[in-house]
């Protein structure tokens, strides 16, 4: 048989393409999945299968695939001014206009933005900004940034160091100096048997203990995702964030909200800081900003830090593509669509609650130990014993088995260990939510029968 187009692509890919976050040998054995086309909440692979994208790409395709407004905005900007930089006292209309639009959407006193090309670049920018800030304040010894185990803050050196992913730290001698971690507020995984609110307070108070251990005069900032995304959609107990905020204020430590996933409507608010009543000094955004159509990120900066940056001499930091005009034009168009179609309000009042109610119905499945979610983020925990909530042994690979069954059913759902997570496009309809839940349940049934086969091979 002659080689198909798909097989030819797989061969080229295997010969020349190094994939992000991929076990190369496993991939070569299996053959890459080839995605060819997207429309609305659906993808089509090279075999013509239609797949419901329950992850919105990587948490970013919030308006779904193929939105003409975004394509037109990119096209028009490409024709008018495809590139110019913002260094050396220059701006261009898309950057200036988007900065002002974002200032109008951001909570608290976040009235300035620094543009980047990604979430990782946001967090590298945060590290340089907070250290520069404290040096300008006359406290250059304030260098330490406190984060959390199992946080995700990106893949650059600073992003991976601030993140709390052990396998990432193990490759390449991370974390960098003066980046330390406390425990995460993951009640299902680490707080079984403890009252959730008490657990939330205990985890938040680890911040105070860490500050006292290091010496408050050495601590620059605390960084956290309002809801941990890549770590498994971990929603902290209500007691957690107010206590973190209190401790940051008490020791005059900058609070950084990494809203790369939570921002742009994902939780039913423009930013999750509003939902949690947080007043961050810095706020990172990226995924969802352009609905993933073009890379873009931004660090929003509160009054205190912005004044110091503006008056503190030159800040030696910037990217060639900071505030790329095409990306800014697409972000502006994206925000306009979201406003015109009341997408954030719809997530808060209609489709978010609907998804959460339907998602919770999966809780009766024999494999499911917990369901949780907010807005259009949701997770469920696969367990070996529904009564005791005992987990599967790691080598059972329950999460990966479930993920593969989801794909066979035409649904993208992601596995973080044995936590199954979704983050669908914000434009998903009720019928499509029903389809997602139906496919998820089928995948759970198939996972159960696979796990019950005594002679099954490890995935
Ligand atoms: C994805 C993510 C990042 C990294 O963003 P990239 O655009 O992949 O560099 C940072 N922080 C959080 C919370 C993320 O989810």
Model description:
This protein is an alpha/beta fold and 459 residues long. The chain folds into two domains: 145 residues, Aspartate Aminotransferase, domain 1, CATH 3.90.1150; 273 residues, Type I PLP-dependent aspartate aminotransferase-like (Major domain) (Aspartate Aminotransferase, domain 2, 3-Layer(aba) Sandwich). Helices cover 42% and strands 16% of the residues. It has 18 helices and 15 strands. A seven-stranded mixed sheet has the order 4-10-9-8-7-5-6, with helices on both faces. β1 and β2 form a beta hairpin. α10 packs parallel to α11 and α17 crosses α18. The longest helix is centred in the C-terminal third of the chain and has 23 residues. The model has no long low-confidence stretch (mean pLDDT 96). The site of pyridoxal-5'-phosphate (PLP) has 15 residues, from α6.
Write a brief structural summary.
Helices cover 42% and strands 16% of the residues. The protein has 459 residues and is α/β, with parallel strands linked by helices.
Q: What is this structure's SSE topology?
A:
Elements (H helix, E strand, L loop, with lengths): L4 H12 L7 H7 L4 E5 L2 E4 L4 E4 L2 H4 L8 H13 L12 H13 L4 E7 L2 H18 L7 E5 L8 H6 L3 H5 L8 E4 L4 H4 L5 H19 L4 E6 L15 H11 L3 E5 L13 H5 L5 E4 L11 E6 H9 L13 H16 L2 H7 L1 H10 L7 E7 L2 E6 L15 H12 L1 E2 L1 E3 L2 E4 L7 H23 L7
Parallel strand pairs: 3-13, 5-6, 5-7, 7-8, 8-9
Antiparallel strand pairs: 1-2, 2-3, 4-10, 9-10, 11-12, 12-15, 14-15
Helix pairs in contact: 4-14, 5-14, 10-11, 16-18, 17-18
The protein binds pyridoxal-5'-phosphate (PLP).
The site of pyridoxal-5'-phosphate has 15 residues, from helix 6.
């Amino acid at each position: 048989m002659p080689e198909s187009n798909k097989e030819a692509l797989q061969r080229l890919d295997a010969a020349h393409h190094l994939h992000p976050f991929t076990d190369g040998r496993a991939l070569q054995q299996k053959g890459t999945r080839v995605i060819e086309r997207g429309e609305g909440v659906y993808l089509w692979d090279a075999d013509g299968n239609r797949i419901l994208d329950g992850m919105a790409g990587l948490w970013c395709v919030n308006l779904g695939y193929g939105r003409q407004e975004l394509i037109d905005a990119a096209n028009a900007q490409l024709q008018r001014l495809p590139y110019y930089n913002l260094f050396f006292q220059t701006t261009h209309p898309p950057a200036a206009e988007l900065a002002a639009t974002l200032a109008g959407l951001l909570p608290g006193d976040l009235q300035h933005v620094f543009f980047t090309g990604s979430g990782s670049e946001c967090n590298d920018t945060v590290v340089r900004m907070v250290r520069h800030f404290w040096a300008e304040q006359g406290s250059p010894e304030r260098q330490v940034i406190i984060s959390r185990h199992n946080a995700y803050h990106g893949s650059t050196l600073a992003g991976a160091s601030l993140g709390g992913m052990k396998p990432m730290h193990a490759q390449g001698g991370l974390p960098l100096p003066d980046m330390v971690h406390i425990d995460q507020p993951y009640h299902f995984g680490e707080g079984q048997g403890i009252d959730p609110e008490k657990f939330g307070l205990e985890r938040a108070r680890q911040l105070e203990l860490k500050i006292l251990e290091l010496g408050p005069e050495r601590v620059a900032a605390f960084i956290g995702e309002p809801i941990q995304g890549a770590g498994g959609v971990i929603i902290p107990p209500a007691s957690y964030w107010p206590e973190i905020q209190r401790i940051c204020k008490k020791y005059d430590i900058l609070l950084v909200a990494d809203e790369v996933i939570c921002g742009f409507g994902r939780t039913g608010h423009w930013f999750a800081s509003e939902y949690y009543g947080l007043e961050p000094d810095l706020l990172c955004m990226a995924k969802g900003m352009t609905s993933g159509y073009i890379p873009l990120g931004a660090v929003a900066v509160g009054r205190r830090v912005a004044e110091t940056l503006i008056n503190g001499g030159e800040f030696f930091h910037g990217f060639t593509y900071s505030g790329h005009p095409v990306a800014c034009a697409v972000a502006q168009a994206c925000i306009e669509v979201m406003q015109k179609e009341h997408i954030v309000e719809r997530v808060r009042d209609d489709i978010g609650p609907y998804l959460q109610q339907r998602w919770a119905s999966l809780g009766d499945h024999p494999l499911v130990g917990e369901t949780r979610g907010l807005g259009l983020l949701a997770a469920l925990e696969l367990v070996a014993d529904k009564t005791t909530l005992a987990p599967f042994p790691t080598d059972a690979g329950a999460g990966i088995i479930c993920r593969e069954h989801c794909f066979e059913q035409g649904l993208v759902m992601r596995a973080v260990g044995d936590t199954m997570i979704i983050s669908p496009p914000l434009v998903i309809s009720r019928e499509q939510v029903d389809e997602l839940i139906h496919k998820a349940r089928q995948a759970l049934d198939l996972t159960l029968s696979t796990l019950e086969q005594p002679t099954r091979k490890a995935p």
